[in-house]
Design a protein that fits this description.
Largest sheet of chain A: 5 strands, antiparallel
Oligomer: heterodimer
Number of strands of chain B: 13
Mean pLDDT of chain B: 93
Distance between the termini of chain B: 21 Å
Number of helices of chain A: 4
Structural class of chain B: alpha/beta
Helix content of chain B: 40-55%
Structural class of chain A: alpha+beta
Low-confidence stretches of chain A: 1-8, 97-103
Shape of chain B: elongated
Amino acid sequence: MKQSSPSEQPDGSLLDVEFGVASGGTDLGKLRQLVGEQCTAAGLDQARCEDFVLAVHEIAANAILYAGGGGRLTLRRTARGLRCLISDGGTVVHPARRQLTSPDTGRGLWLAAQLADELTITSGPDGTLIALSVDLS
Amino acid sequence: LPNVIAVDRLRPGDHACLSFSSDEERWEVLRVFAHHGFARGEKVVFFVDRATPADEVTRRVDAGKARRAGQFVVFSTTAWYEPSRFNRERCITQTRRAIDAACEEGYSGLRGTGDMAWALRPGIKLSELLSYERAADRTLFRDWRYTGLCQYDRRRFDEQMIHTIDGIHPVALLDRVGALHVTLTATGLRLAGDCDLTTRAELVTALQHARKQAASVLRLDLTELSFLDARCCGEILQLAAAMHGVERLEISCRPQLRRVLTLLGAASLASLTFRGDELR
């Protein structure tokens, strides 16, 4: 499992993890635990924490299934709460097209958007970057 | 038989056993055990054999910060269980004192886990171990201040022994983070652990089997389930959608999961009902 030692970095970074088989990185079950622990430690209540972990999972699972087998997840503190970035460096497939070609993927992405306070998608030549935010309050 | 759950569902007052056969998987379970204790404001104590230095335990559990703060402590099983001759009452009294001390220090309780391989050393009868486990189960967990996890290595304790030990513990933990456990009940299924892409096939097989076995109402108990992803929610909703006539699917689950299932379309299925939410 590749994982940096997080909570002691000064820039608000809580996690920086490569996940999925392609990177030889951590599997989804462990990834969920790590994200959940950091969210709880940051003060997110249990129900919102479970929602956010599910949202993050759906995006990471899509990266494993449809974008080269894995990706990279970073989690950091922001002024309002927590922000999770998931990037996959696999084949560039625009998320809108993914939704059209696979109802399963569409549902995961849609659910993630319902559960997070904010979800943004950026597609570029190197892959897709999805940012999920949750407010602390 | 003990109630099987994943480590993240452990609660204060639980006396659990973990029988394992992979060290890597065991340490991952123990890492989650420790971090859930930290999150609950509990003091966490690990009992390990002399061959495993405290620094290595701290590294494996990723608990450096908690150890420096005094929230995470590592003891040797030799010093704890048999400084001289093993004595059941002394061990129980020591544990009770440790629980009191943790609470006096301001922690919400104590969470302890020990590798029980010390009991295999010459001079300790297995009957003594069993009697210790039974006495601990009767006395240490009643006031919900202690969460205890006894680790048994399946490569060292024989199967019959593990079976007997399982019977003493009210709770048994899944031996791997992310695993799914399915129990067939008289009226349906009870699930524990995680449903995601790695366990989805198991879930589908279990649901199909349960539908064949069930009378008109199939009861799905998800109250102890740790995680259910969107695809697996979809499998459950599809099962309900395929039901006709008098067939019904009745789900028991926590409010968070009910909300997710509802977002994904549960409300539009006439054959699906939720049993009163069971808060944990």
